[in-house]
Amino acid sequence: xxxxxxxxxxxxxxxxxxxxxxxxxxxxxxxxxxxxxxxxxxxxxxxxxxxxxxxxxxxxxxxxxxxxxxxxxxxxxxxxxxxxxxxxxxxxxxxxxxxxxxxxxxxxxxxxxxxxxxxxxxxxxxxxxxxxxxxxxxxxxxxxxxxxxxxx
Length: 152
Fold this sequence. Notes:
single chain; mainly alpha; Hypothetical Protein Yqey, Chain: A, domain1
């Protein structure tokens, strides 16, 4: 996984390339990501850590997913498509997403580690799983799978 310095350098490089190739969507998304990272650094009043960068990128991806859902529900496929394209660009800067099998394996290990036996123990399991899946899986999907696996 790249460090936050490598991510910032990559953003600068890819912004220049997108400007040269006149890729307006990519320019827009990269500028949004850079602005979000800068805002996070200002909010922290210091330098960003690798976790901060992942957190910001995850948040941007989550916003795109929610917008896609809302636009699709409202029948605005044109706007949903744009958000989907933006999401794909943001995901390039996130860690590789976990497959369903890998996610289930992590959850099962956390269930065993927490000694969980029912959906009432979901909080214990989520406390273990969340740091391991940060940026690599959508929190809603993780929560849903934990609940499903605890119900079985």
